[in-house]
Design goal:
single chain, about 260 residues, alpha/beta, seven-stranded mixed beta sheet, four-stranded mixed beta sheet, 10 helices
Length: about 260
Amino acid sequence: MTDTDSVLASLHEFLSGERVPERSILVVNWRGTEPVRQLLEETFDPLPLEVEEREEPEREENLVALVEDGEVVATSPLRSLREAVLLVNTDLYRTGLSGIEEYEAPDVLTELDEMSFDLRGLPASTKEKLLLVVMSRFIEKRALEVGEGRLDVAFQKLSRMEDEYGTKQVYERLADTNLDVHVYGVPDATPGPDGLTVHAGETESYRRSWFVVFDPPAGNEPAALLAVETGPNRWDSMWTYDRDRVERLQTLITSGFS
């Protein structure tokens, strides 16, 4: 096994290393339109989650709930899902027109931690891969708000930091904090701004890895997303807030990437 195969094998092993409680999505008091319903189904159907509808007069209309072992653990109004996922595409995040401060990830998505997802990008799906973009921005925003600790991020191609205006803006902000920011990718461009530690390589581990790993000082919640490309624009993925898991993933990255 080559060193590159070993790195990717370690990342795949990390993705399959946990088991989660039984979860489902509950849509309460649906009053949305049929096109929005179809977008909601397109977003959640590929995930290993049952989606149910229920009328509960004591709750608000168009509420989406995450249920874990029979208990509601997170809720989001349909409006927040429309603004973050349903009625947008990745261009919203690439252009960064609203700014990262205005960005709010729906709780019913951020709380899907420790679950393994097989997500597809274009042309197979317009919504599945968007979940990874949503979670990447969520973790980047958390790192920006804390302003300290270490952030490791893989882009596959370093040119994305220059070509995607929204991404460039975010990393200019991150570089202007006390964070230790490390970026990884194929060296098809020289990324700015100053203040970033760049790790460049041509191996498959650089080309097929997508991660955003934030390890903050004690007292702050860590977060990490990991995705490995298994086919053309198809990703095995998960995210976690467990400090031991975040630190273990960071160790895999620092030991496996030059």
